Structure formats: structure tokens, C-alpha cells
């Protein structure tokens, strides 16, 4: 069964609490939160005090996607803010093995994110340590972009790498997910779909989430 993680980036930030309540009462599995530093990506978004506030009302695990340089600096702050999963970009870590173990030692699930141009093969020596791999299906930094179709090939390659390595990592996809792009992702082997503008731009976000889940 496919899982859905609504991305708060596309929520109305003046009504963030209502957006979290909507996810709480939906069939979504987790809440995806995008942290950006204005260096790794051009944009700056949500920081730790806001994540902490969200965690006080969230009834689903927080999936924190760190689009920041050298994210290993923030493991303690991400954990203290209430994250269940910490996603770090492969492109932003010099010592990825150390960062992954620091995240797990802090009691969170560890995930690595790959940009669209980063090959799946770069994970072959770390895949057994990972709880999740997040494949970006847009260039990170902004919601509402178009899905990059080469992601489907990467999902199949990652599914094969996970199978041959004996890893238990699940596959999450982020960017341009909607009812048109999701079926091929599910067929290719995705486990979790992040959806921002599709969910929060819908007239009925609960139904938008349910429609994605019911595709599978
Ligand atoms: C983009 C973020 C995504 C974003 C996805 O850099 O990582 O989580 O919210 O937005 P949509 O679903 O609108 O492409
Ligand atoms: Zn994201």
C-alpha cells in the first residue's frame, strides 16, 4: 500500500495549525517538513522553533527534509524539535557515514536524499545503513514544479539495489507528485509519496490524499 506524506511547504503559513490538523485527520502516514538554508538551495523556509511548535500538535511522525549544507551540524536540534525521520542530502554531506550514524544514535530514522542528477549507485556502500531513501523528482527548493520523468528509472534502479543488498530502506519520492504522475511511481516501486501543491492546492485535501492512496 502506498503511503502519502503531505508537504507543509504548500500550506498557508498563516494557518499552519489548521494544516497540521488536516493531516492529523487524514489518511496520510507522516508530515513532510522542508528546511532550507538559502545556500544549498536558493530558498529559506521553516526552522527548528517552527518544527517544534508543529510537533506539539502533530499526531503523525515528522519527516524532516534538510535542504541545507552540512546537515550533520543540526542532528541534535532536529531531534529536539521532534523529528522522527531526518532526511539529509547526499550532495550536502562530506562524511555521510558519520552523519547517518549520528542520526540513528540520536534515536531518529535515517534517510538520504538524492538530487535528480545524482546517480542511485552513489548509495551502494551506505544503503544497508539507511531506513529510507528520498529521490527528488524536481530540483529542490520550491513547490509546484513539474515531475522529472527520469525519476522512474531511478526508482527501478533503487528497488534493485535494495533487493540485492538486503537493505530494509523504503523509497520516498518528492516533487511534482499528483494523480497523473503517481501511478507510474507506484508501479516502479515507490513506497511513500510526498505531495505539496497537489494536496494543499486541492479544494478537498482529505480527498486528495485518499485519492492518491486508493490508486494502489
Ligand atoms: C521541494 C520540496 C518538496 C515540495 C514538493 O524542494 O522538497 O517537498 O514541497 O512540492 P510539490 O509536491 O508541489 O512538487
Ligand atoms: Zn521535501
Main features:
216 residues; alpha/beta; TIM Barrel; eight-stranded parallel β-sheet; 8 strands; 19% strand; globular; binds D-xylitol-5-phosphate; binds zinc ion
Structural account:
The protein is of the alpha/beta class and 216 residues long. The chain has one domain: Aldolase class I (TIM Barrel, Alpha-Beta Barrel). It has helices at residues 16-24, 48-57, 75-80, 96-105, 151-165, 182-188, 197-200, 205-213; strands spanning 3-6, 31-36, 62-67, 85-89, 109-114, 132-136, 170-174, 192-195. An eight-stranded parallel β-sheet has the order 1-8-7-6-5-4-3-2.
SSE blueprint:
Layout: E1 3-6, H1 16-24, E2 31-36, H2 48-57, E3 62-67, H3 75-80, E4 85-89, H4 96-105, E5 109-114, E6 132-136, H5 151-165, E7 170-174, H6 182-188, E8 192-195, H7 197-200, H8 205-213
Parallel strand pairs: 1-8, 2-3, 3-4, 4-5, 5-6, 6-7, 7-8
The structure holds D-xylitol-5-phosphate (DX5) and zinc ion.
D-xylitol-5-phosphate (DX5) binds at residues 7, 9-10, 32, 34, 65, 138, 140-145, 174-177, 194-198.
Instruction: Note the quaternary state here.
Output: single chain
Poorly predicted spans: none
Order of helices and strands: EHEHEHEHEEHEHEHH
SS-based structural class? Answer: alpha/beta
Largest sheet, in brief, is: 8 strands, parallel
Task: Find the CATH topology.
Answer: TIM Barrel
- Strand line-up in the sheet with most strands: 1-8-7-6-5-4-3-2
How much of the sequence is in beta strands?
15-25%
Shape: globular
Identify the bound ligands. D-xylitol-5-phosphate, zinc ion
